[in-house]
Design a protein that fits this description.
Elements lengths: L12 H15 L5 H16 L6 H16 L3 E5 L1 H6 L1 H11 L3 E3 L6 H13 L5 E2 L7 E2 L9 E2 L9 E3 L5 H9 L3 E5 L6 H5 L2 E3 L3 H15 L4 H9 L3 H21 L2 H4 L9
Parallel strand pairs: 1-2, 1-6, 2-3, 6-7, 7-8
Antiparallel strand pairs: 4-5
Helix pairs in contact: 1-2, 3-9, 3-10, 5-9
The structure holds adenosine-5'-triphosphate (ATP) and magnesium ion.
Amino acid sequence: MVEIEIPENHPRKVSLEIREKIIKGYSTHEVATAGLLAHGRGEAFDYLIGEKTNDFAKQAIAVAVAALLSAHHPVISVNGNVCALVPEEIVQLSEITGAPLEINLFYYRKEREDAILRALKSAGAKEILGTHDKPSEIIPELKSNRRKVDPNGIGSADVVLVPLEDGDRTEALKAIGKYVITIDLNPMSRTAVYSDVTIVDNIIRCLPLMVERASEMKITPHDELLKIVENFDNEKNLADSMELMKTRLGDLSKDIGLLRQKKLLGANE
Ligand code: ATP
Ligand code: MG
């Protein structure tokens, strides 16, 4: 594979570097073809939120971490894109919160599962659930391969983090009573609107912040964590993210010159 060197001063350097990670994950079989398309959809929404972690996302991150830390049995679901973009950080978050990692693939291929296993292990993961050599339980209502869950993982979890998730599966997880946290740049996706906590941010920026928050909040008393979770309003959180997009588009549409001056990012600051 040809690796592309992106010049330091390129206006879309960070975005292009993230894209390179996904392409690399595709060439090593972690990422499915549909994963490339999902990434592009995420990029479009990242433009709209200014490619930065906004206040609504920071608040949702704190709530997500509080929910993971106060859960009886939290689990983190990993797919190809998550593994290609943030392998080290997802392993760190799993360790700090005590939430095991479970591989869950929409487009299952043994080759993909093996590639993801390899990448997570080299990122430091000790135990990984959901692999096909383990016994599996079925989520009723789901028809795809992802209906299989690990009885020691998502099967018995009370809180699940499902980043970059498909809407069918999120609905199914809600139907069987799970508290669902997601990371999704599109606040209008079915996953975003069915989840209990939606972090509208790029997983690349969000995961390091989650790891940092989890280390800080690890000593927070249990009843305080529960209060943080109870006081959260995800509909307001989603509405705030849409308001930001609306305001940014309103400002930019009045002065397209802002875009030429490379002020697309942080135009509301
Ligand atoms: P849904 O099935 O929830 O209605 P969808 O079919 O549009 O949504 P999927 O491909 O099923 O989308 O799920 C992937 C989701 O992940 C999309 O909403 C996409 O915007 C989001 N996404 C992609 N890349 C990233 C990223 N790097 N960070 C955060 N979210 C991302
Ligand atoms: Mg979908």
